[in-house]
Amino acid sequence: MSDYNFAYLDEPTKKMIRRAILKGLAVPGYQVPFASREMPMPYGWGTGGVQVTAACLTPEDTLKVIDQGSDDTTNAVSIRSFFAKVAGVATTTRTAEASVIQTRHRIPETPLRSDQVLVYQVPIPEPLRFLEPRETETRRMHALEEYGLMHVKLYEDIARHGAIATSYAYPALVNGRHVFDPSPIPRFDNPRLESPAIQLFGAGREQRIYALPPFTSVQSLDFDDHPFEASKADGACALCGATHTYLDEIVADDQGTRRFQCSDTDYCMERRA
Amino acid sequence: MNALAAGFANPPQESARAFRAAMQAMACPGTIQNITGPEVPGLSPAAALLLLTLTDGTTPVLLTGDAAQSQDWLTFHTGAPKAGSAAEAAFAVGRWDDLGPLNPYPVGTPDYPDRSATLIVEMAEISGDGPRLTGPGIETEVQMSLPDADALRLNAALYPLGVDLFLTCGSRLAALPRSTRIAEDG
Ligand SMILES: [Zn+2]
């Protein structure tokens, strides 16, 4: 324990990240640059989220880590045990018992509370990147609210597929001003981005932090004639019977039988308890 | 003597708790956090705690009025350089009248709205007796005492540019980010 500073990062680094978080909260959805540090894990494991969590944790926190809704993947288990070791915090798999939740690709089904913080691991923070590879240009586009091309792209989807095809990382307008990427959560989760909890987003490789204060307006981009729909697989969980949750389709046996089950494993177990 | 006034006994843990209070305040304008900070001449415990938690050698700090008494303490504990003017300040501390007009403080640039000053305003009191506030972090609306609603309304009109405020009073802490909309009445 004494080999590490509390929560691994040194104090100057945490100060820098903390200042970025505060500016991110003051301008919801705007991507604040920060100087990302090397973490003892690969980028694909969410080093941006890990750094944000490290800057937020207090000794009194209880941490939950989920990966695509599951507490039990290698990624989730590794990050959870990392913070148990370097911050000495309690850990849990129960959403209701957690004060800080780090997530990759889901929002927990259990409604979050105002005393909880949700930290997202973000691979690509820039929603305009696929339209414009140059950072200086996307920064300009945000500054000038030049979001027309984004709408054109979504409308092309409708023309081609009859509906907006984007099912993950569905872009939204935050506080009526900044278009943001909610990370690769399913668009089923988009309506729950308007939450009583503080939501923080960390992108390690791209060195960006952004934030949603509680109850911030988050409007998924859509059109009058094609309103946003929070879609999910049409089925029921084979374990708990839920039809209102986000479902993963899994291969259940050697015959290739497919079935659905809740992607949020804690929520599914709670329903069966 | 002032320089040797208390800092953090256990910096990582105490700064973590202080930051969470500051984050909660900034995320939820109109809410008041109670924090335990050090006794430093010229500063409220809340303002001293914010400075210990957020400033370092990269953040010029402008200490105005009584807060200027804490210059040696701040340099000793955080290494934050003294801002030569409001225009250079990453952080500024003092009573509203001592801080002066908002205009000279950095409000960020269109490409980088985060490059703006954070003002720590020492208040005689912080209460729910003030204008109605709406915006991010506020479920419906909330009321809070503000130092100068007219000046802060102009600041909010610069959004996404603008300065962000912490309000401090003894061990009490609140915040008013630029995103908060301030009603005209009351
Ligand atoms: Zn289920």
From TrEMBL, chain A:
Its EC number is 4.7.1.1. The keyword Cell inner membrane does not apply. GO terms for molecular function: 4 iron, 4 sulfur cluster binding; alpha-D-ribose 1-methylphosphonate 5-phosphate C-P-lyase activity; metal ion binding. It catalyses: alpha-D-ribose 1-methylphosphonate 5-phosphate + AH2 + S-adenosyl-L-methionine = alpha-D-ribose 1,2-cyclic phosphate 5-phosphate + methane + 5'-deoxyadenosine + L-methionine + A + H(+). Pfam families: PhnJ. One of its GO terms (biological process) is organic phosphonate catabolic process. Keywords: 4Fe-4S, Iron, Iron-sulfur, Lyase, Metal-binding, S-adenosyl-L-methionine. The keyword Plastid does not apply. Belongs to the PhnJ family. Catalyzes the breakage of the C-P bond in alpha-D-ribose 1-methylphosphonate 5-phosphate (PRPn) forming alpha-D-ribose. This is Alpha-D-ribose 1-methylphosphonate 5-phosphate C-P lyase.
From TrEMBL, chain B:
Pfam families: PhnH. This is Phosphonate C-P lyase system protein PhnH. GO terms for biological process: organic phosphonate metabolic process. InterPro entries: PhnH-like_sp, Phosphonate_metab_PhnH.
